[in-house]
Amino acid sequence: MAINLKKGQRISLKKEAPGLTNVMCGLGWDVAESKGLFGLFKGNDFDLDASVLCLTSKGKLKSKSDVIYFGNLNHGSGAITHLGDNLTGEGQGDDEQILVDLTKVPDDIVRLVFVVNIYKARQRQQSFGQVKNAFVRLVNLSNNKEIARYSLLGEEYEGKTGMILAEVYRDDGEWKMQAVGTGVMANGLQEMTNEYY
């Protein structure tokens, strides 16, 4: 049974899924309905973009190629594959998925930071306060069992346009996961990554 993580909680992937090598990080969300003059309506589509930042032990990106997102779907090592952009968040389950082969992650990359941002958030006047049922989950691809899930409460992120969701990191040679859930105000992925160079 999957663990429902609380903000800041850490788990050992070795303990929760012995022998784990390939994982899928799934992200999902729905857009909260707004009340208008003529009842309920949905505003502009929310385009949430999931990305992975591959950080060194110093917490830095070595290059732009260590950011995996809709414009760079594959890491050069073959360890990380983004399965593509979902422009609306429509549908059930995961809206975006990222595959990670933990055995191929280069030794100098010790932290995989999973982030999400709202595309054109400022222009569209959108924030995570208008998003509901947002979650990040980690699935063991050898048996398709969910290892852990972290659900976000939209109201607490009013005004935030980016989110650091979770981290998968190496600690003494062992992979672990931490639920982060930190909202940031950033106009796009570039702004979110600036502090990591």
UniProtKB/TrEMBL annotation:
Source species, domain of life:
Bacteria
Check the record and name the Gene3D superfamilies matching this protein: sav2460 like domains
Where is each TerD domain found?
Answer: 1-196
PANTHER family to which the protein is assigned, alphabetical? CAMP-BINDING PROTEIN 1-RELATED
Provide the protein name. Bacterial stress protein
Taxonomic source organism:
Crocosphaera subtropica (strain ATCC 51142 / BH68) (Cyanothece sp. (strain ATCC 51142))
Lineage of the organism: Bacteria, Bacillati, Cyanobacteriota, Cyanophyceae, Oscillatoriophycideae
